[in-house]
């Protein structure tokens, strides 16, 4: 379980009635770390600028309940807002709002940061949401606002027109590209829009990036399973072919190919993002004879779906098959057997992005173009030594899976 750095939690699940429905709709993340006064100011400014509160702020009591901060913290933020001319304290009446909604947001936000992603935050993996909140807090401490834009239309087959409108109408000093595909990265690179990729870049695209070292992680996972005696090892990966997944596939096959075991086989199984697609992949896995004895899964949600389907098929983990999850999420800590996985703090990811973002905002070149983070491997309880290993070829199994054998090309190549 990942613990956030600050014990104070801010929750939008239950907002006081006085805060209104607008407070529940707000996409601005509430403060979770240090410098609570600055973060509280940022939240109040956001609500005011977007017209969530008009004419008057909610009462101090309601705001303290909403933000879960002390009265002293809130009053310090209100004093600063009054000094900035945003609000005016009225004795016995509360705090009157002086600025019109959108007045501050209407101008260019060249000193601020935009995050572009295909999904709204509430549909992201918990780990992604955590580092975004951490990043927002780090920026807020420096007086920098993080604004989020999402939508699948920005990631369509021909995104140029919508991306141009987005960037032109919403100028920011730096864009963070998250879960970006090759077309989006190419457009930002071609148009020289200041940005950084929160993830891996595709071959031939020269953009700064920060990501986990997926290639090394999956090469390590293959080595762990080979060291336990497994020789028939499968990997489940998406057909979408994101850059990090391409690196993962390459590392996995390298780990098997470079091992001293001549009978080791690397099997790559492709699936889509649906439960039905994962179910189909698991069914094919269970039909293979001889069956793979170890499995590497990239996504925590797909890990959960896969082990559920395996259990329905009577396959026990790790007695019948050892399983590793490449990525971690807090909910994995509640599964039994405890999954073997790679753990990294969301704060570490946010910190790795902060420096290049500040460099870009300052008009300086990014000092390190690509940085890769190696997480900590947690062995868990989902892997075990293979007690009764029998060497065998999976050549026929590979054809039914759509397998890449060691030595095949990876970057930019479409799965069969």
Care to describe what's here?
- The structure is a single chain.
- The chain is α/β, with parallel strands linked by helices and 416 residues long.
- It folds into three domains: 25-97, Arc Repressor Mutant, subunit A, CATH 1.10.10; 109-212, Rossmann fold (3-Layer(aba) Sandwich); 214-344 and 376-401, Response regulator (Rossmann fold, 3-Layer(aba) Sandwich), CATH 3.40.50.
- The chain has 13 helices and 14 strands.
- It has helices spanning 20-25, 36-49, 60-67, 71-83, 126-141, 160-169, 182-190, 214-227, 243-257, 275-287, 300-312, 346-361, 395-401, and strands at 87-90, 94-97, 109-117, 146-150, 172-178, 195-198, 209-212, 232-238, 265-271, 294-297, 322-325, 340-343, 370-373, 376-378.
- It has a six-stranded parallel beta sheet, with helices on both faces. It has a six-stranded mixed beta sheet with strand order 9-8-10-11-12-14, with helices on both faces. Strands 1-2 form a two-stranded antiparallel sheet.
- It is elongated and about 80 Å long.
